[in-house]
Specification:
With about 675 residues, the protein is an alpha+beta fold. Helices cover about 55% and strands about 10% of the residues. The structure holds ligand LZZOIA2V and flavin-adenine dinucleotide.
């Protein structure tokens, strides 16, 4: 759609005059410096000027088939643009560039069918191939001579990877693997792009050689002819059907009938099968084939932050424009943003987007540092990364989904319109809570790490920094509540330590009563999930505070003030959400809670004048927001009417169904 130009809505113009800080300063902080902001804007200019974002009819008014075809068209031209002009600007060839990720949303209101190519296929090649394999597949994948996906999940199993049924049996005579789908439930299911788009695929299958099963391994499989795009003989492939979102991403199913691939198509960086069928197990760590999942979990924290920033931008701008009800008799209707309950719904969204973005950046740096350790042969930091990326992926995607839905509630009936974009943003983020490891499953992985850390600390061993609070707790350090940043973080750590201690105790008590470890663990899993969530909260709170302090060191006083107001709001909000836990595990008193409640309500008032400026500081162009409610000019009603008028349903004054059904019904002739 071409966005019509309107003058700024007067309410929104007034809001912007109230701003107390330099918006550009905050934009630069989140981009990583002035230069990066300027580079991002250049990239956005090129993509927006390319005309690629244009749709003849709104995406939501297209059929599923049309949406898919439109998304493929855009993906192809966008890929070409990335290889030409965008590469010149960025000087980078990669898929990591946050600016590319952001502007991709200007093209796809839903998502690109190529997402998994960049999001998982290329990263798996980079992380799992030998250098010889890398030289064969990486240039082709980066150049889009081959397009790929990641097929792990099956109809019968997603979470439990060890339970996957697809087999890859080595045939030493021909030096090939035979891929086979032995049952209905063994069919690959869900892989993005698999339904219609891709011609190659990373397949996760149980490896058999010399009659022994060595567990799941990764294989590069060509599934379609490069010229005709027909499925190769022995391959059954198709689209799984309509779903809540991801409508343009052609999630697919895949079955193999004794399909043969060369030995070299097993990704052999970590484990190998030699020509004679001898299996060589990974030298350093048994779970290195799970590395792409760790990578995506890390990027999903960024997705949570980015999508929440979009939703809250839409809802705050709308709330500044929307007037409803009256605060006092005969007074003009106020902007709904003036209601403290509305501020309560929205300002936590702004603070959370900051918290998650800074946590995502920190996690990304941690990921890079662990990768560099691993390149030197040291896998010692991997368990902590796995524990961190698991809980942060779980909690950030889950919180973001809840807050995005809250943004929709904050926009009343108009938020329910697809043209608000809130339903799309929600359905995308809701899926992130499930895929790449369901919420509960990932928190249980973190819980394993926490229980182990507890046992190590008990044995007097040093534990990693993110769990050093466990050692303090075991030394008997009592928590004394202080309502400062550090004080609150320490109390949240005391909550996490208290919950981990209770889990350890429950497991031990259950074992004393005769249960084996597995049953004792199973019966404690409700508490274990809770403990892992509490640990994750303390990590987010600490990272957010530390990062704001570090990044605003040389900022103007006004930026420091407003960024810190949001930190305090976040800390107060979570304190009030978790009073039960804090009363149990810290020395917080009722008086302290009253103080925190008052502080929270005062902060809403302090932040109110800067609310619109704070969402402007996410610097999200209208073309990325795709929202009738959230455009920079605030012309909500004009856009809603424009969209209604453009609705294909209104192209004819009388729909044919009137003549076919309604009229005969009215006339008693049906
Ligand atoms: C145009 C666009 C521009 C740019 C795009 C760029 C980015 C895009 C942004 C978006 C993201 C991209 C794509 C998104 C779209 C869709 C993606 C969806 C893809 C998928 O969903 S793929 C399928 C994912 N599936 C899962 O995640 C399954 C979850 N299950 C598991 O991970 C495992 O089964 C398990 C961990 C639950 C259990 O595994 P297990 O049984 O093998 O292991 P154990 O529980 O017995 O544990 C043993 C031991 O191993 C440790 N462990 C487990 N996992 C790991 C790991 N990953 N790393 C390190 N260690 C691990 C575990 O802790 C145990 O250790 P211990 O010491 O013995 O306790
Ligand atoms: C939009 C979308 C895109 C996807 N894209 C891909 C893709 O490209 N490639 C791919 O391979 N996969 C993909 N998936 C699949 C995805 O990774 C899985 O759906 C996900 O990992 C969850 O697994 P599951 O469906 O088996 O859920 P299940 O494991 O069946 O979960 C169902 C419920 O059971 C609970 N549960 C399961 N096991 C346990 C346990 N041990 N303890 C306690 N509770 C348990 C879970 O918490 C959950 O509440 C995609 C999924 C979606 C929704």
């Amino acid at each position: 759609m071409v966005l019509k130009k309107y003058n700024i809505n007067p309410d929104l113009a007034l809001e912007r005059q109230k701003c107390t800080f330099d918006i550009e300063e905050i934009i630069n902080i989140f981009d990583g410096g002035k230069e990066k902001t300027s580079q991002r804007r250049k990239i956005e200019d090129v993509v927006l000027k390319s005309g690629l974002c244009h749709d003849d009819v709104p995406e939501e008014c297209m059929s599923l088939k049309e949406r898919y075809e439109n998304a493929v068209r855009k993906s192809c031209f966008f890929s070409k643009l990335m290889k030409t002009e965008l590469q010149e600007i960025t000087g980078i060839e990669d898929f990591e560039t946050p600016a590319i990720r952001r502007i991709a949303d200007a093209l796809f209101k839903d998502i690109s069918p190529f997402l998994l190519h960049l999001g998982m296929f290329v990263p798996t090649i980079i992380g799992q191939c030998t250098s010889e394999q890398l030289m064969i597949w990486l240039p082709k994948a980066l150049d889009l001579q081959i397009i790929g996906g990641y097929a792990q999940t099956e109809l019968g199993h997603g979470t439990f990877i060890r339970g996957l049924e697809t087999t890859a049996t080595y045939d030493a005579d021909t030096e090939e693997f035979v891929l086979h789908t032995p049952t209905l439930t063994a069919h690959k299911w869900w892989a993005g792009g698999l339904g219609k788009t891709i011609n190659h695929c990373i397949v996760v299958a149980q490896l058999y050689t010399k009659g022994v099963c060595y567990g799941t391994h990764l294989f590069m499989v060509q599934i379609r002819d490069l010229d005709t795009h027909m499925p190769l003989p022995g391959i059954k492939v198709g689209e799984i059907g309509p779903r809540m979102g991801f409508s343009s991403a052609d999630n697919g199913f895949l079955g193999f009938n004794n399909f043969r691939i060369p030995r070299n198509n097993m990704l052999m960086k970590h484990a190998q099968v030699q020509k004679d069928g001898t299996y060589v197990k990974p030298a350093r760590h048994g779970k290195l084939t799970y590395q792409t999942m760790v990578f995506v979990r890390v990027t999903l924290v960024n997705e949570a932050a980015f999508n929440l920033s979009k939703a809250v931008t839409i809802a705050v701008r709308y709330s500044a424009v929307r007037r409803q009800s009256e605060m006092r008799p005969n007074e003009p209707e106020p902007q709904i943003l003036d209601y403290p309950t509305q501020q309560h719904k929205l300002f936590i969204g702004i603070a959370t987007a900051h918290a998650f973005q800074l946590t995502a950046n920190w996690l990304w740096n941690t990921f890079k540092s662990v990768l560099s350790d691993m390149k030197k042969g040291d896998v010692g930091t991997l368990p902590e990364l796995h524990a961190l990326s698991s809980c942060l992926k779980a909690v950030c995607t889950s919180d973001a989904a809840l807050l995005i839905e809250q943004c929709r509630y904050a926009c009343g009936g108009h938020g329910y319109m697809l043209s608000s974009n809130l339903p799309y943003i929600y359905s995308f983020v809701a899926a992130t809570r499930t895929y790449e490891g369901d919420y509960t499953i990932l928190l249980l992985q973190t819980a394993r790490f926490l229980v182990k850390a507890w046992e190590q600390a008990e044995a007097g061993k040093t534990v990693t920094p993110t769990v050093s609070y466990i050692s303090r707790s075991l030394k008997g350090e009592k928590n004394s509540w202080r309502s400062t940043d550090e004080g609150i973080i320490k109390s949240f750590q005391a909550v996490a330590a208290g919950k981990i201690a209770l889990c350890v105790k429950s497991i031990r008590d259950r074992m004393k009563s005769g249960l084996d470890y597995e049953d004792a663990w199973l019966l404690t899993t409700v508490q274990l999930v809770d403990a892992a969530e509490a640990h994750c909260r303390s990590v987010i709170l600490e990272t957010y505070c530390n990062e704001v302090r570090r990044l605003t060191k040389s900022s103007s006083d006004n930026v420091k003030i407003v960024m810190h107001q949001l930190v305090t709001l976040y800390l107060s909000y979570w304190t009030l959400q978790r009073t039960g836990d804090l009363l149990r595990y810290s020395s917080i008193s009722e008086k302290d809670i009253d103080f925190m409640q008052r502080q929270y309500e005062e902060l809403l008032q302090h932040i109110r004048p800067n609310a619109v400026a704070l969402v402007d500081a996410f610097d999200l162009r209208d073309e990325i927001l795709h929202s009738s409610l959230g455009a920079y000019d605030g012309r909500v009603y004009e856009r809603l009417m424009e969209q209604a008028e453009n609705n294909p349903m209104n192209a004819e004054p009388v729909n044919q169904s009137f003549h076919k059904y309604i009229k005969p019904l009215l006339q008693g002739k049906l």
